[in-house]
Write a structure and sequence with these properties.
By secondary structure, this protein is mainly beta. The chain contains no helices and seven strands. It has strands at 7-13, 19-25, 40-50, 53-56, 60-63, 76-80, 85-88. The relative contact order is 0.20. It comes from Chelydra serpentina.
Length: 107
């Protein structure tokens, strides 16, 4: 450690090429909040022994668990006759995983 480690920072690589600090503290275990479902993150640890005496370690890849889809747009009536109706719909705006099937409900 080249001294007493007095701060750890959990960071993630952003799409803009800069690192985003997710959490920081003195503990060697930290929890990250606010992650999105079914998303891959590259997370690393930076250790500091003084104010500007910090070094970043390698990153680890993690993928969060899937969640139910959200923001499903309503179906569109494409064609309607006296006995049939043909519907179309778009995928949810936030699939939160791999959509395996759709169900169309009639009330």
């Amino acid at each position: 450690p080249n001294g007493i480690v007095n701060l750890y920072r959990l960071f993630s690589n952003s799409t803009r090429g800069t690192d985003v600090v997710l959490s920081e503290g003195t503990a060697t275990q930290q929890t990250i909040h606010g992650l999105k479902p079914f998303t891959t993150y590259a997370v690393g640890v930076e250790a500091c022994t003084c104010f500007n005496c910090c070094t970043k370690g390698p990153v680890a890849q993690l993928t969060t668990q899937p969640a139910p889809p959200s923001q499903q747009p309503p179906p569109h009536i494409h064609t309607i006759t006296s006995r049939t109706a043909f519907f179309q719909w778009n995928a949810p705006r936030s699939p939160n995983g791999i959509v395996e099937s759709y169900e169309l409900h009639m009330y």
